[in-house]
Each structure stands twice: as C-alpha cells, then as structure tokens.
Fold:
Amino acid sequence: MTLTAALLDPLRSGAAAARPLITFYDDATGERIELSAVTTANWAAKTANLLRDECDVEPGTRVALLLPAHWQTAAVLLGAWWCGAEIVAAPEDAEWVLCDADRIDLALAAEPAGGVVALSLDAFGKGVPGLPSGVIDFATEVRLHGDDFVPWSPVPDDTPALAGATVTDVFADARARATALGLTASDRVLSTLEWTSPDGLGDGLLAVLAAGASLVQVRNPAPDALERKAQTERATKRLHP
Structure:
C-alpha cells in the first residue's frame, strides 16, 4: 500500500469524507481555502497523474520540494507518495524538484536529472509567467489530469518514502507521533509549523492525517489573529514552532 492510500483511504468514506480535512490560511494575502478528504484526494490524484505521465515518477524516484506549508504542497506530497516516490531534503539529491516561483533559480541550480516543476500557489490557479524553457508549470498542467489515480503496479511497503525511511516506517512514525501529541479523529488542529524538516512534516501534516484529525494550516501567521482563528475554526489542538 502506498503511504497516500494508508493516510487517505480511511478518510474518504463515511462521515469523514465530507468534513474539512485541510483548511488553509495565508494571512499575508487573506486567502482561505477548505478541502474535504475527497477534494484533497482528487488534487493528490491529479498531481500523481502529472508526475507519472509527464515526469516518469515511479517507485524509487527521488523528489525534492522547495515549497511552504500550503494546501498545494500537501497535494504534491500525497501525489508523489502515490507514485511511490521518495521525498528527499536536498534538491541536489533529487531527480525532480518542485518549487515555488521564488525558488526556480535554486531548483535549476541543483540540475536535477528529471527537471523542475514550478508552482505559483495562486488561489485562482494562475500559472507562473515567464518560466524558463523546460520548466513545467504545475497550475497549467495539473488541471489536464484526472481525479483518480491507480498505480501501474503495487508499491512495496519497503519502498523509501521520506529521507530513506520506508512507507511502513513513515506511517508507523506518523501514528506514533499522533499518539504522542494526543491527536484523535475528533480534533481540529491549528498549526503554524513548516514542513521543511522531517519533524515539522511529521507533526504538522502526517500525524494529523494519521489520526484522522482536521488541519487548519496558517501561513504567514499574524500573531494577533491566531487566537481569533482558533476560536472561529473551533481548534482543539495547536502546533507552533
């Protein structure tokens, strides 16, 4: 089973399917977007189809992310894991690098053997203008792909998924962290953690999904607004650096 299936399959049926899974805020832009488990899975499937069909990402392919903690980043991570990819920290160690518009030069400097996919992270789905030749525009291409994804072959449980750790180990660690943090399926977790480290990603996204909880992720948090968000979103747990 892929890591994505292990995390999302229990959330895509019954009452959990329609409730918010990820609520994303960007306090710098005023953006707010809410995704159910089904919508999150659809975006992950679109991403997985793009990565497999256009980038030849398959089990064992190393992928690096130069992206903030964002709902589209969650879709990218889940899509990459659905293909069986391994997420690595250093772009120099990756075959493909997915980056935001501000870090295209950094991604290209790593000279990944596969190439670079750029995300605008635009709330309205606009692409990145003036991309260098050969760089794939995520916003333009992902919308062309289907909402369902089926791997061409099963992804073994011992496939590396995150910095050398296998699918089995990453999922087990996510469940252990969920227990350590006291997270349950009834929780709504307000988080400002970044996902650029294994610990931040593990607590801020994977543990929340493994618990079946709901995530309220805040980017560029305005300190005076966090308490109001916690009350408005009925947060029961908080995760901050």
Q: What stands out?
A: The CA atoms of residues 47 and 133 lie 21 Å apart. The radius of gyration is 17 Å.
